Amino acid sequence: MTAAAALLARLAWFGLTLAPLAAAAADIPAGERRSGYDFMGRELRAMQDDDAANPGMLSVLDGEALWNRADGDAGKSCADCHGAAPSGMSGVAARYPAFDPASGRPVDLEQRINLCRSQHQGAAPFAFESRELLALTAYVAHQSKGRPIAVGDDPRTEPFIAAGRAVFERRQGQLNLSCAQCHDDNWGRQLAGATIPQAHPTGYPLYRLEWQGLGSLRRRLRNCLVGMRAEPYPDVAPEIVELELYLAWRARGLPVETPAVRP
Amino acid sequence: MFLVRAAGLAGAAATATLLPAAGRATPAMMQEAIRRIVGEAALQRGRVTLDVPALVENGNTVPVTVSVDSAMTGNDRVVALHIVNEKNPQPQVISARLGPRIGRARLSTRIKLADSQQIVAIAEMQDGSFWSESADVVVTLAACVEDLVR
Amino acid sequence: MTARTLISVPAGAKRGEVVEIKTLISHPMETGFRVGTNGTPIPRDIITRFTCRFNGEEVFSAELSPAIAANPFISFFVTASESGTFGFEWTGDNGFSVSETAAITVE
């Protein structure tokens, strides 16, 4: 590497690159997209792959029970409208977050489930990160396991993907770091003993060893922001779904892994 | 397996999250726990395989498999398996009794390790002999910590 | 909600075949060594014992400590000798007690 190139590499690491933020130059090329699964050791990959040993499957089983349970004023279960989940929900999670025409904004799978509960079951929405919402979301997403993430085909989502990209590339917090600096520019390298993944949300809700339980992407993003010493967004902030949407678009083509296992 | 003894940052940080003011085990406590398992018998090395990642991605959940080279027939039977550690607050991890219907001496579970340390697996045989294997494990932490509030 | 379990026992096996049994149960396995945000220790809450019986006879048992990870996973191997029912029992702190069964057909 020439001296000039080395200096540029240094400056790029400190985020002083002169390349325009909107350029796709920093994007990970499709051929190099890797799930966090690829960065884990043999034992954790085996834990994820075995449905009889994957601790996230406990929540999937809870979700199956909830799917079939009548709830709300309408006294209906999810199954009453959608039928059996393996057929009715196949491929659905791979397309989320998705554009919701009624609100004119994208919604993620958790929000969609709550919209269904209030609009069609006459039931109160489940709180974010509640055991029920995690279980139902995991059960629905599990029906898309192995399907390639297919977000971004809908032109109505374009402005929101761009808004999510802006969040991803914006420097934030006390460390003045952007998501892109770690996950676009330095994936694969070590940060305090852990390998930096590319940050593709392929397996959410996932069983995180750090949490000793299942958690949502929303929780993980909050975790990232706190870790970066940045103010986390409120759960209902539009930035969260826009960021989730951008991350899903950025991960397009990678297979859904729910429930994934991650350190 | 390349065995690495870790010191410094990873170890100290691991202590801060999992262990508060409470005391922790010492290698001497682990030896005492082994003595209570083995009694007066000699603890021999061999026959036991302890399968644990040399580098652990998160100490909260460490997959472990203990297996013993034993036909599990007649008098050549494993009757119990034990795992002990040297740096968690307590030395005991798990003690399992294997009944006559157990066809293979192989136990898998997931354990917590508070710090980089040595763990020891002990097999108790029908004929009263004890066999063991040890492994040194390096424990790392997630890079970004979350609020405890959640 | 009662604790969710996930038990994997083959539905059928040949006489003399050694089969693997995998068990998972949801449980926080709170060690009792952690401290909450205001400095108050979080009390211990763990499963202390797991037992597997076949047609009533004990096959495998384990004493668990706080060092067993949350949502305990335990797998072991059994020689299939006759058809029957496996009984699984987990007991622990705060009166925790869960029982499950699984049948196996052996020919």
Q: Based on the structure, what is the oligomeric state of the protein chains? A: heterotrimer
Give the helix/strand class of chain B. Answer: mainly beta
What does the main sheet of chain C amount to? 5 strands, mixed
Q: How many DSSP-defined strands of chain C?
A: 8
Overall mean pLDDT of chain C stands at 95
> Strand share of the residues of chain C?
over 45%
Number of domains of chain C: 1
Structural notes for this entry:
The complex is a heterotrimer of chains A (263), B (150) and C (107). With 263 residues, chain A is mainly alpha-helical. Chain A is 40% helix and 7% strand. Chain A is built from eleven helices and seven strands. Chain A has helices spanning 3-13, 42-49, 56-67, 78-82, 85-88, 109-121, 131-142, 158-169, 179-183, 217-227, 238-250, and strands at residues 98-100, 105-107, 190-191, 194-195, 206-208, 213-215, 261-262. In chain A, strand 5 and strand 6 (213-215) form a beta hairpin. In chain A, helix 3 (56-67) packs across helix 7, helix 6 (109-121) packs across helix 7 and helix 8 (158-169) packs across helix 11 (238-250). The longest helix of chain A has 13 residues, at 109-121. The two termini of chain A are 35 Å apart. Chain B has two helices and nine strands; from the N terminus they run H-H-E-E-E-E-E-E-E-E-E. Chain B is globular and about 50 Å long. Chain B starts with 8 loop residues before the first helix and ends in an 11-residue tail after the last strand. With 107 residues, chain C is an all-beta fold. Chain C has one domain (5-31, 44-106): Immunoglobulins (Immunoglobulin-like), CATH 2.60.40. Helices cover 0% and strands 53% of the residues of chain C. Chain C has strands at residues 5-8, 12-13, 18-25, 47-54, 57-64, 73-79, 84-92, 96-106. In chain C, the strands form two sheets. In chain C, strands 2-8-7-4-5 form a five-stranded mixed sheet, with no helix packed on it. Classes of the chains: A mainly alpha (263), B mainly beta (150), C mainly beta (107). Chain B binds chain C through residues 18-22, 60-62, 72, 85, 88-90, 92-99, 101-104, 106-113, 148-149, and chain C through 18-19, 29, 31, 33-37, 41, 54, 57-70, 72-79, 81.
